Amino acid sequence: MPLSGLVAASLHCIGSVCRPSLETGTRGAARTGLPIASSEKMPNGRLLTLAAGDRLTGDRYCQIGGSMSVDVLIPESTDAAVEAYGDGSDITVIAGGTIVMQLVNYGWIRPSRAMLLNKAGLSYVNQDGSSYTVGAMTPLSDLIDLFSPLGPCARNVADHEVQYQATIGGNLCAPTPPEHPSGDLQGPLIALGATVRSAGAGAERTESVEDFLANKDGRLVLDISFTAPDAGAFAALDRPHTRHFTALAVSGAKTADGMRLAATGAGPTGVRLSSAEAAAGNPAAAGVAALQDVNLRDDALASAWYRERTLPSLVARVLTEIEEAS
Ligand SMILES: Cc1cc2nc3c(=O)[nH]c(=O)nc-3n(C[C@H](O)[C@H](O)[C@H](O)COP(=O)(O)OP(=O)(O)OC[C@H]3O[C@@H](n4cnc5c(N)ncnc54)[C@H](O)[C@@H]3O)c2cc1C
After folding, report:
1. Which of 23, 62, 83, 99 qualifies as a FRET site for 306, CA 20 to 30 Å off?
2. How far is the CA of 220 from the centre of ligand 1 (A)?
């Protein structure tokens, strides 16, 4: 079953929890007589696909479910996705769904409007010399052969099954639960000095990953751009199982602007290790300095105590690898 079918089936189940007898068809269309553009027939509802310029009123959404009905939007172009997203209020973006569908299935979030991005034309890796632009819907499997630290980090996320489904946009926007860190790709993207292009209230904006992470609510990620570094390295704590999240990882990149370092698992989002960068000439000292840049915490994967003892080694290992590769 394609992703849209799986998602619709799950969203349909939310409705059925509240009321088993579900409506069939597009309620709004029946009410207004509006023609329904290329929609997919689902067992208990329809998914409305949207072209740019389609009128995005309640009448044009399909509805799945009973008293807990969910409008599922499937924009068929980037423009249509941006238009449907609007200012991001009251809309849940579903990319690969590896995180968000768990939240839906466990009832931790109950979206009233969901937007699937799988047909929005946002899956691409465009290369122009050493410059790359990666669409938000690009799966991690398309990144694993890229240079370090991005490629090895993507390869380190879960296993092949997850890597083929999970997207770079979803990873960047991953919510951080208290149990474990998430958004591993934030580390390499910060180290590469990547920029994020997003849409939302107040029009399109392009900014650094750090700025984006500090203010990402109400933003729809369109793509991420970066330049291949002169040298890069990635080091992470080993995981007991491929499906475990990574407790702590460090990414480094020797760029035109100098050495850039970042960590994941050392705070709620990926964090730049500016103090360590300042001491980059001495890997051991840089490792110790990195502790000034982080806000370590206990979670289900590791204690703050353990992270404090391992972060300096990961930083030193990354810097040594880059030094050897240069
Ligand atoms: C078994 C398992 C193991 C995992 N291991 C790891 C791991 O080791 N490291 C790791 O980092 N992650 C891990 N994950 C989490 C997850 O797979 C990745 O973070 C993945 O990249 C998320 O992408 P997605 O496309 O599936 O996101 P989704 O689940 O679709 O979305 C995640 C969040 O981002 C938002 N979102 C998605 N796309 C956009 C966009 N374009 N603009 C704005 N908001 C958007 C969604 O609304 C949602 O809030 C694991 C997941 C599983 C199931």
Report:
1. 99
2. 14
pLDDT band, residue 100 (cuts 50/70/90): very high
- Domains contained in the chain, number: 2
In DSSP notation, 134-201 reads EETT-BGGGTTTSPTTHHHHHHHSS-HHHHHH-BHHHHHT----SSS---TTHHHHHHTT-EEEEEET
Pocket of ligand 1 (CB under 6 A): 92-100, 117, 136, 140, 157-158, 162, 166-167, 169-171, 173-175, 182-184, 220-221, 243, 245-246
Same domain, 205 and 300: yes
In terms of residue numbers, what domain contains 147? 125-325
Model confidence pLDDT, tens digit, residues 116-140: 999 999 999 999 999 999 999 999 9
Which of the listed residues 68, 98, 116 is the one where a domain comes to its end? 116
Which residue from 92, 99, 156, 167 has its CB within 8 A of the most atoms of ligand 1, so it is best to mutate? 99
- Are 249 and 202 members of one domain? yes
The whole-angstrom separation of Cα 231 and Cα 299 is 32
Dihedral angle computed from the Cα positions of residues 151, 156, 158 and 163, in that order, rounded to the nearest 10 degrees: 10
- 211/247 same-domain check: yes
Q: 307 C-alpha to center of ligand 1: Å?
A: 23
**Tally of CB atoms within 10 A around 184:** 25
- What is the distance in A from the centroid of ligand 1 to the CA of 18? 27
3-class SS at 123? coil
Identify the CATH number of the domain in which residue 305 sits: 3.30.465.10
Same domain, 250 and 192: yes
Banded model confidence at residue 176, pLDDT cuts 50, 70, 90: confident
Which residue of 10, 92, 104, 182 sits with most ligand 1 atoms within 8 Å of its CB, as the best mutation to test the pocket?
Answer: 182
Question: Both 148 and 184 in a single domain?
Answer: yes
Does residue 247 share a domain with residue 107? no
CA of 119 relative to ligand 1 center, distance in Å: 18
Query: pTM for the full model?
Result: 0.85
Domain check: are 155 and 289 in the same one? yes
What spacing in Å lies between the alpha carbon of 68 and ligand 1's midpoint? 25
